[in-house]
Amino acid sequence: MIYGILAGLTWGAETVIIGIALSMTPFLETSQAIVLAPFVSTFLHDAFSAIFATIYNLVRGNAGNVWQAFKSKDGKWVILAAAIGGPIGMGGYTMTINYMGASIGAVSSAIFPAIGAVLARIFLKEKMRWYQWIFLIIALAGVYGLSYSPELDITNFWLGLVGALMCSFGWGIEAVIVAHGLKSDIVKDDYALQLRQTTSALCYGIIVLPLMGGWKFTTTLFTGTGMLLPTIMLAALFATVSYLCYYRAISRIGAAKSMALNVSYTAWAILFTVLFLHDTSVLNPQTILCAIVVLISGIFAATDFKSLFSKNQEVSDAEA
User: DSSP letters of 130-145?
Assistant: First the structure.
């Protein structure tokens, strides 16, 4: 559960940082740049994250293990999940931030935990007790409350909505497929992270950017763009830590419960927006209440109290 909460906290920081990057001049100079911004930034984001994940595994001496995971059947499931969660999920998420603002990137997660929980119940036979479903619904209602504020600056509601739907389905499906792959002894969470980010970056670089004619614009960002690339790199670093914690949570408590905890990033994003950007436009009783609801309900949705109490009782009996 701690890994799930950390995944949400670090993704909340990533949300604010990538929002800053998308508001920088190179992504606003021309109409083409505005259209390409979500996709180019996602490619760079996942490419930098893949590099960080590779360095992490090299330092830990896992290069050979990552290769074995890549060749395995379960590793192929992780690659499939990356092909869905990266181009579709992350691309949609960046679109939502771009057109609706970082403070309501929460919209992207309004559906994905529910979609993922249902799929996990159907395909992975993960059990969630009745009160966990109730808390999940309450958490999603809190997310909606966070995203609905008249003070928010929404540049294109419909494109933002398309991005939110892409993200929700992409991430919901990804979490279930990854959970299946992580059941293997060969595919560990840190190996899966490298496979995921590398696959996503390659999908963007080989398929998405060429189809959109975005490579020329992408290459121009490597010269004379000031702090743009370092900002995207910082977002990628937080994303790498977030995914590592998220995958670790999935491998330990399952996809449905991990998503319930991960959705807390919606509240963290609001908090970081206020603390670091000094943007108090969404700091009102509604957002404060909804942020608290999301955090608490997310934790309760991931907690199986019956199992927890039974384990505590077993420990007490053993000590006695």
Answer: HHHHHHHHHHHHHHHH
